[in-house]
Structure formats: structure tokens, C-alpha cells
Amino acid sequence: MRKPKLSNLVRELDRDLRAVRQIINRPTEAVIESGGLTGPQQSAMRVLVESDGLSLKNLSKELGLAHSTVSGIVDRLEKQGLVKRQTDEADRRLAKLVVTDPVRKFLRETWPALEMHPLAGALRTATPSEREQVLQGVRTLRRLLERGNE
């Protein structure tokens, strides 16, 4: 029996990893889509969630969009109660854009369960031996990838 070519293994693994990522992301993507946010609004929210607040100028830089475009995006997010303008403590003349408390609460209390649901569901149906195989396989792949990037 011939061994598969390395390039074929790489393609198969890449395809499987993409499929796994898509399955894992389905619940969170469904929630994002149900929020009715446009692509640029989603991008702005992603940047603001990962920051401790940004000025409109810095958000524009992060998004690579014109100041006037980002201003309109922020206005719409503010009307939906997702973002608020907060006076910057360091310089009271500046406003900092931050996500609202309900968004933070959702991210803290609901989001983690959405992210874990597909993995938990799959592992719940696995035997202890299968769980260990999955864990060891992913750890081995991570170790090999990290070793290759040193």
C-alpha cells in the first residue's frame, strides 16, 4: 500500500480543519446574523469589543475606512443601543467609543456557551477513548505547528 503524498495530506487536513471551524462557528454566526448588522457594523463591533474603547479617529484607522463612513456606522450602532460615546478620562475633550453594558453582559454570560456548544455536543457523544484521541491529535498538531514557527 502506497503512502499518500504529503501535499494530499495537507490539502485533506486543511479541508477538514476549515469544515470544523465552520461547524464550530455556526451558532455564533447565527446570532450575529440575527442582529441584522451590516458587514462594516460587525467589523466595528468586533474592534470595539476587543478594545477598551477607541476614538472615532482610531476606529477609522483600525477599520481602514473614512472618518465620515465610520461616523455613520457608529451613529447607527448607537441608535441600536450597542455602542455609546464616553468622555475620555485622560482628555475630557475627547469621546471614546465603547460597547454598552448589555453588550458586555451578553459577551460575558451568553457568548462563551455559544462558542463551546458544538464542541461540547460532539464530545458528549464521544467515548472516553475518542475524546482522548481528539485531544492528543489536536495537541500534537499544535505542537508541530508551533515548532515549525520557531
What is the distance, rounded to the nearest whole angstrom, between the alpha carbons of the first and last residues?
35 Å
Regions with little confidence, pLDDT below 50 for 5+ residues: none
What is the topology, as strand order, of the major beta sheet? 1-2
The H/E string reads HHHHEEHHH
Largest sheet: 2 strands, antiparallel
Instruction: State mean pLDDT (0 to 100 scale).
Output: 86
Strand content: 5-15%
DSSP strand tally: 2
Number of helices: 7
Q: Which structural class matches the secondary elements?
A: mainly alpha
The whole-angstrom Rg is 21 Å
Helix content: over 70%
Estimate the global geometry from the Cα principal axes.
Answer: elongated
Number of domains: 2
Keywords:
7% strand; 2 strands; Arc Repressor Mutant, subunit A; 2 domains; mainly alpha; 150 residues
Report what the structure shows.
It is a single chain. The protein is mainly α and 150 residues long. It folds into two domains: 1-34 and 110-150, no CATH class; 39-100, Arc Repressor Mutant, subunit A. 71% of the residues lie in helices and 7% in strands. It has seven helices and two strands. A two-stranded antiparallel ribbon has the order 1-2. A hairpin with a 7-residue loop joins strand 1 and strand 2. The radius of gyration is 21 Å and the shape is elongated.
Write the SSE topology:
Blueprint: H1 6-34, H2 39-50, H3 56-63, H4 67-79, E1 83-87, E2 95-99, H5 101-109, H6 111-125, H7 128-148
Antiparallel strand pairs: 1-2
